[in-house]
Amino acid sequence: MLFQRDFSGQIDELELITDAYVLDVLRGIEAHQSEIDPVIQERAEGWHISRLHSVDRSLLRLAIYELYYRKDIPPEVVINEAVELAKRYGTEKSPAFVNAILDRVLKEKVSI
Asked: What is the dihedral sign for C-alpha 51, 52, 55, 57?
């Protein structure tokens, strides 16, 4: 759904989503994107966030939202899930890239 929003600027049929976690995450990322994107940008050395692969950008937004705003999910689980999704949906280089960014975020975690 984040990937869809990245292309169209909206999520079709958001009102049909009944899973509370999914709704929380989608609304949370939307509400905090102006805080999340600079976290990505500062750690994606040499890459502007708009130039990142859309899957990578979406996964990083999701994981950073969870790291900062979902205290009920252990950071190791957040990173592992993001890397696994990158393996499944990203490019050949996505898993290593996503892991490196999230590892830096976790080590340098500052308030946003």
From this structure: negative
With contact defined as beta carbons under 8 Å apart, do 3 and 58 qualify? yes
The domain segmentation of the chain, as residue ranges, is 2-108
Neighbours of 77 (CB within 10 A): 10
Q: Are the C-beta atoms of 6 and 57 separated by less than 8 Å?
A: yes
Distance of CA 98 to CAs 10, 27, 89, 102, Å? Answer: 24, 22, 12, 6
Q: Which residue has the tokens 């609304």?
A: 27
User: How does pLDDT run across 45-96, given as a tens digit for each residue?
Assistant: 888 999 999 999 999 999 999 999 999 999 999 999 999 999 999 999 999 9
Q: Whole-angstrom Cα distance, residue 47 to residue 15?
A: 34
Give burial (CB, 10 Å; 0-12/13-18/19+) of 94. Answer: buried
Q: What class does CATH assign to 2-108?
A: mainly alpha
Number of Cβ within a 10 Å radius of residue 42: 14
